[in-house]
Inverse folding.
């Protein structure tokens, strides 16, 4: 590594540390704020992001066009404001969680819907796969499971900023939520599930042109085949769940929409990768209907489906 590379690396390290220091400063301010004051600040920021500050506005507009084609401009603005309010509150709640959400008071912050269904699977000796999406406060959902004593493994991309990555990893791992990088994780996940472990996954990530294409909220979307394959190859039941905010900050409902189990599959849900993928996309859509404004509509979930190209041999046959 020559001198220029060393200087560039030192510059990136300094920039990363500066970004980390600013983030920790903002988090410290948030932690000191009363909930009602933070809620008002988040509402003001939501108005700014909708009306003045342009952040992924094109992505939001395209998602609205695809999923809500009949929504008026006023309805789209209202959805944008409510979504940004939710996202700002989500940041605050993550900052508050280590100080305000504990083993002795979690029941005052978190209602568990269909708890028998969820706990029955998590307490089983069989492996379990929990599926959710960029909806509600999924970070609090994972944090709450760890707080209750359920250790999970989650697949996630490592952040480019090492300082921020370590900070996020510490938050998620406080009560037993372990993160593994998505690159080369398959052998580890196989061993984890074979040992009866629990795997939690975000199911609404774009998987590219080679993914499994099914409808999500009525629009074709590419889904990672690995989610269904993990369940089908290990025999692990798949639960579709959510954690959404209720009437105020730090007040949530966690629930399980449904379970797909290859050992008790009377509807053919677990026949193959596509049927299981379509099943969990449909169930996640049902969860989003509870509070549509709590979905990440700035998330690039839907992208153009590639057109199939005819092979050279096919063109030659047609020409003949």
């Amino acid at each position: 590594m020559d001198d220029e590379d060393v200087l560039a690396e030192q510059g990136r390290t300094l920039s990363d540390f500066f970004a980390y220091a600013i983030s920790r400063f903002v988090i410290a301010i948030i932690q000191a704020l009363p909930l009602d004051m933070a809620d008002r600040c988040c509402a003001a920021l939501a108005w700014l992001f909708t009306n003045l500050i342009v952040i992924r506005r094109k992505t939001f507009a395209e998602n609205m066009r695809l999923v809500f084609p009949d929504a008026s401009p006023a309805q789209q603005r209202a959805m944008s404001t409510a979504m940004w309010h939710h996202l700002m509150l989500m940041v605050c709640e993550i900052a508050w969680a280590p100080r305000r959400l504990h083993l002795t008071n979690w029941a005052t912050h978190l209602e568990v819907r269909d708890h028998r269904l969820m706990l029955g699977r998590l307490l089983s000796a069989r492996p379990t796969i929990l599926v959710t999406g960029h909806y509600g406060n999924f970070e609090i959902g994972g944090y709450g499971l760890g707080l209750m004593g359920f250790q999970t493994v989650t697949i996630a991309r490592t952040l480019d900023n090492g300082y921020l990555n370590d900070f996020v990893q510490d938050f998620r791992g406080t009560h037993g939520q372990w993160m593994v990088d998505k690159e080369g994780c398959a052998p580890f996940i196989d061993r984890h599930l074979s040992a009866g472990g629990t795997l939690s996954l975000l199911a609404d990530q774009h998987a590219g042109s080679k993914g499994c294409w099914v409808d999500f909220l009525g629009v074709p979307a590419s889904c990672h085949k690995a989610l269904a394959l993990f369940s089908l190859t290990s025999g692990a039941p798949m639960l579709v769940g959510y954690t959404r905010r209720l009437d105020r900050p730090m007040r949530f409902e966690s629930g399980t929409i449904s379970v797909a189990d290859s050992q008790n599959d009377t509807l053919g849900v677990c026949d193959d990768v596509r049927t299981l993928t379509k099943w969990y996309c449909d169930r996640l859509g049902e969860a989003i209907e509870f509070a549509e404004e709590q979905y990440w509509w700035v998330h690039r979930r839907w992208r153009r489906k590639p057109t199939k190209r005819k092979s050279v041999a096919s063109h030659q046959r047609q020409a003949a």
User: Anything to note?
Assistant: The mean pLDDT is 89.
